Amino acid sequence: MTSSDIISETLPASMTNKLSVPGDFYKMAFQFQQIMMIYESAIKQIETKLDILNKESSVNRTRNPISTVKSRIKSPESIAKKLEKKGLPVNFDSMMENLNDIAGVRVICPYISDIYSVRDMLLKQPDLTLIRQNDYIDKPKESGYRSLHLVMEIPVYLSKTEHNVRVEIQLRTIAMDFWASLEHQLRYKNSAKVPDSVRRELFRVAETIAMTDREMEEIAIELQALD
What we know:
Largest sheet: 5 strands, mixed
CATH architecture: 2-Layer Sandwich
CATH topology: Beta Polymerase, domain 2
Order of helices and strands: HHHEHHEHEEEHH
Helix content: 55-70%
Shape: flat
Radius of gyration: 21 Å
Strand order of the largest sheet: 1-2-5-4-3
CATH superfamily: Beta Polymerase, domain 2
Low-confidence stretches: 1-10
CATH class: Alpha Beta
Number of strands: 5
Number of domains: 1
């Protein structure tokens, strides 16, 4: 693999078409590294908050509302494709101003009520600001996808600067995550158009999973009442 191949894989073509001068490349690569470090720091802060809130439930001898926390940073290629799809300039300023999901945190909860409990706890954090909420549990997507999406802003303090960083937080149950993960694989790993019959079947399975979520929570409530 040549150095040009590495550059092409690291930064999208739209970000590398002016890198004929080595100094320009070093400057752009360093700037990108700095920006990603800021987003990674924002994710760490969100993860720490979630861990503390979950541990608080354990200490208080209540049920843990969080099962698993996952995180990711969008790749340069995904960032460039999304900006191009939106018809926006492909550069660092445009990326930071227009994209809310460069940094993503996924919170997997045992039950639907836990999703809203975690949401409410996050909203009480004084350094977190809610920018947007999309409730795909109350109003699922046409595909059957269910999840609660929050875009939250959190300050990241460096040695000399402060940055308000947006992080997309997706909250879903274990069952919702199972369906969404498999549906994502089917859509993105299959280049052929998904037939309507398969779409209907995926929707039917999503409805079944949603019903299972509700029934499992009802069982949990009954068992808690016996304690």
